């Protein structure tokens, strides 16, 4: 008997594997409207126009110097805080502008109006005083912290997240060509509470790259509340899903929308709000839960970090702790100015939130 074997090619008989990325999602992010795109473009123009509208700044600087020297005996003051604030925006908003370059800009502009321009070392010394105001933590891991002064009276929707700031100016071409390059100095971690409607960074904590996200969550919210902000909801990813965070927000009647892990159990753990939200997650599934809770708005935090690094650069050039803290503060000030001007241009967001100043 001859036994014949046939090799069956089952390659074409395989069922196609569904591509999750191509799968239609129910809760897609709202498409950007034309007026929002126009506001983004116009904000950059108006921000630089406001910074370099020297006629306005000259009057402010002259008035402040006149008031400072009205009862001054001896040598009069030559520099004022308005002058330093102007230089903060010049350095922070225009990438790769160092204190030396800013001092040159000041000498060219202020000198032509009969005002003495500060030396670059004077600019840095004056800005050092800002660091004492932003860093009051006794924890050695925290380099600095800051909360933006409150303006307006609307309720705020907050997203809490973190991102890394590069401490190294690595030259990829040199490393690729010669197999060598500057040693990587590591990262700083920027933990931020972001207004998802205006995009402004309301508060931040600057730490080393080994500090966990969850360790500074309550500190960020406390900073915002102590400044008088009216917060009604906080969004965060599953790195912040801790019972202490739930209890802290629940006691202050603030809604907490945080993503759960896949193995979450629907128990309260001492906070009923946590139990109800976890049960909703388990019962409805992740996609439906996102739709019901509006969790997709947390994505605005990623947009804010992307805008921040695009406008102010993610590389920190300072080498000392003090210089790093000052440099980050300058970048945050300049970024918030851009976002504030954008908010005033757009007035009402696509989500029908009025974000212009009262």
Task: Describe the structure in your own words.
- GO terms for molecular function: DNA binding; transposase activity.
- Residues 30-39 have a biased composition (Basic and acidic residues).
- This is IS5 family transposase.
- With 358 residues, the chain is an alpha/beta fold.
- The protein has two domains: 32-134, no CATH class; 138-170 and 185-358, Nucleotidyltransferase, domain 5, CATH 3.30.420.10.
- The chain is 45% helix and 13% strand.
- The chain has helices at residues 34-51, 54-68, 81-93, 99-110, 120-134, 172-178, 217-226, 243-251, 272-284, 286-293, 299-312, 321-346; strands at 142-147, 155-166, 187-195, 201-208, 230-236, 255-258.
- It has a six-stranded mixed sheet, sandwiched between helices.
- Helix 1 crosses helix 12 (321-346).
- It is globular.
- Residues 4-18, 20-24 and 132-136 have low confidence and may be disordered.
Comma- or semicolon-separated keywords:
alpha/beta; Nucleotidyltransferase, domain 5; 2 domains; 6-stranded mixed beta sheet; 12 helices; globular
């Amino acid at each position: 008997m001859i036994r014949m074997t046939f090799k069956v090619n089952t390659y074409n008989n395989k069922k196609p594997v569904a591509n999750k990325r191509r799968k239609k999602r129910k809760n897609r992010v709202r498409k950007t409207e034309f007026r929002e795109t126009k506001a983004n473009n116009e904000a950059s123009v108006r921000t630089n126009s406001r910074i370099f509208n020297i006629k306005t700044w000259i009057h402010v600087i002259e008035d402040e110097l006149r008031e400072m020297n009205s009862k001054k005996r001896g040598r009069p003051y030559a520099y004022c805080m308005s002058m330093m604030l102007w230089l903060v925006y010049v350095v922070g908003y225009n990438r790769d502008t160092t204190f030396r370059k800013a001092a040159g800009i000041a000498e060219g502009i202020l000198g032509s109006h009969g005002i003495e321009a500060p030396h670059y070392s004077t600019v840095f010394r004056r800005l050092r005083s800002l660091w004492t105001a932003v860093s009051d933590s006794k924890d050695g891991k925290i380099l600095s912290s800051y909360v933006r002064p409150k303006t307006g009276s609307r309720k705020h929707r907050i997203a809490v997240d973190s991102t890394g700031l590069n401490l190294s100016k690595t030259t990829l071409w040199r490393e690729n060509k010669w197999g060598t390059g500057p040693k990587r100095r590591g990262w700083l971690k920027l933990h931020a509470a972001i207004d998802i409607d205006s995009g402004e960074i309301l508060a931040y904590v600057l730490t080393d790259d080994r500090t966990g996200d969850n360790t500074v969550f309550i500190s960020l919210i406390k900073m915002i509340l102590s400044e008088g902000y009216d917060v009604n909801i906080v969004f965060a990813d599953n790195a912040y899903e801790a019972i202490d965070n739930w209890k802290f927000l629940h006691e202050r009647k603030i809604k907490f929308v945080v993503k759960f892990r896949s193995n979450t159990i629907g128990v309260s753990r001492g906070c009923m709000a946590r139990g109800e939200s976890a049960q909703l997650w388990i019962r409805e599934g992740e996609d439906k839960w996102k739709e019901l809770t509006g969790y997709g708005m947390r994505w605005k935090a990623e947009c804010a970090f992307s805008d921040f690094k695009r406008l102010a650069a993610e590389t920190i050039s300072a080498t000392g702790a003090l210089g790093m803290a000052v440099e980050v503060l300058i970048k945050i000030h300049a970024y918030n100015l851009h976002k504030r001007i954008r908010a005033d241009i757009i007035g009402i967001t696509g989500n029908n939130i009025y974000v212009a100043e009262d």
